[in-house]
Write a structure and sequence with these properties.
With 199 residues, the chain is an alpha+beta fold. The chain is built from five helices and seven strands.
Amino acid sequence: MILAPLSPGQDIPGPLLCELTALYASNRAFHRLSGDFPDPDDIRPHQIAEALAGELAVPGAEVLLARAGDGRLLGLATTLARHPDPADPDPWIGLLLVHGAEQGKGYGRALAERLEDRLRARGAAAVRLAVLDNNPAGLAFWTSLGYGLLDRRADRALGRPCAVLRKPLRTRRPGAGEGGGATGAPASRPRRASPARSR
């Protein structure tokens, strides 16, 4: 799996925007839960461009595209270096989205582990995320990866009830695996409670 950041402040090229729209559209069930789009059955490219521009406008935010070795877009993840609350010292995983056709193959787990490795390399001691209360599959995914319940609160953007999860980032043993499957959101910004808000 290859991770590549989406550049902030630039228009997304047409072919990439089509790929991203297909990725989001393949997760209709999650978008029905999250309410992020007016019609989850009719997600449009301009909506994706607007959503990603909003993510990238937040200081310390990063949008990462996950691709297979053959170039296929497998998924997307957003991270936030710091929560807007100064009392929260941890970085956040916002959205973790795996293409619907690729779910169940371990890519979500692999992507989550790559995100943790990136944050660990930057010196983070732990990572947080928020999962919408109406997303039990997302909660099961993240808890299976070692995330524990820290708090319950409403997200900052839409006031949706969420479980806030946290995972300490211990030093990884050499040769530790690169697993694989699913989806996640920050209560800092859990505007979306990713399919981290989870799938």
